[in-house]
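[agent] plan:
  1. take the single chain provided in the ticket
  2. run structure prediction with default settings
  3. attach structure tokens to the ticket
  4. add a short note for the reviewer (M.T.)
[agent] executing step 1
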Amino acid sequence: MSNNDDCPIIFDDSIQLLDKVTICNYEDKNFVRSTLISPDGFQLLVTKENAEIESFTINPEIIDSHRFYKSKVTDDAAGLKTSSDPAFTSALQPKIHIDTGESVFDIKWYPLMNQTEAVTNCFATSCRDHPIHLWDSDTGLIRCSYSGYDHYDELDPAYSIAFNLAGDKIYAGTNRMIR
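[agent] step 2 finished; step 3 output follows
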């Protein structure tokens, strides 16, 4: 595979908003690992292979016109708009860019997130050799960190994370343990 036309892409509703260069860029050996749409549907998180997280604000017109997964955002042969297309540039607006420093294992939105309430605009990440971080999705700053320690009193990083439905607990899957 030598160019972006050969990029293997699995399409889902959030990927259809991204162009090929964002999904798979062979020049810098960077590609999208995961995408996650916020519970209120107005933001998109993208984790990349180079340990970066990008947040985009989704244009409300796109959300309203394609609410029932009948997306008309895609109309070219590859199934994606290109970044030069005016409809694409108005679909997503970059919001924040975070360099986590290590591979992102898992990422979850706060389940009660609502863009009109600033206190709920956050998401949690688990990264290699790092504690769980709760990030502010408006500023890109860490709100707090949650560390788990093993029986040697060393940091035990989480491989997966999940909020409970009430949003007051974070469950972390670590090596042979759920915290």
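[agent] step 4 note for reviewer: Residues 7-14, 66-85 have pLDDT under 50 and may be disordered.
[agent] ticket updated
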